[in-house]
Amino acid sequence: MTETRHSLELSEQLCFSLYTAQRLVTAAYRPILDALGLTYSQYVAMLVLWESSPISTGELGEQLGLDYGTVTPLVKRLEAAGLITREKHPDDQRSVRLRLTDAGADLRKRAEGVPDTIAEVMALQTEEFTILKDSLEHLSDNVAQRLS
How far apart are CA 105 and CA 88, in angstroms? Predict the structure, then answer.
């Protein structure tokens, strides 16, 4: 079996392609999310909460792939914005449950156009979108397995 040698040319680096795409896609989200009063991190947290409220802080962090030290300030900002409340779990006082407020639930309606707007910016056909998403998930799974 022949070992593949990878080039050090910037144009050949997958990491740089991922970095560039991530930076540009996040920049495309910025004006759309600014209109909603959200950062990208807050938006993805709200996506989880719109699907799963109430949810524990730990569960939110797990779904987003974030540690407790990153989730806590994010949750505090969402609470300060009046989008969620934090409450002690009735069965475990150490656990904090996050619950959407009426304003947080109402924001979902205003955010419904975000995926279609971003899809227009990405200009991918449905099949291209699916292939790319599946490939990125496969890549993430592979790297996560090797890091754990």
Answer: 20
Domain ranges of the chain: 35-109
CB atoms within 10 A of CB 57: 18
Alpha helices in the chain (DSSP H): 14-34, 40-52, 57-64, 68-80, 102-111, 114-122, 126-147
pLDDT digits (tens, 9 = 90+) for 53-74: 999 999 999 999 999 999 999 9
CATH assignment, 35-109: 1.10.10.10
* CA 73, 79, 83, 85 torsion-angle sign: positive
Amino acid in the structure at residue 84: I
d(CA 48, CA 116): 18
Query: In the structure encoding, which two tokens stand for residue 75, read together?
Result: 């949750």
pTM equals 0.88
- Could you tell me which of 94, 83, 82, 90 has the C-alpha nearest to residue 57? 94
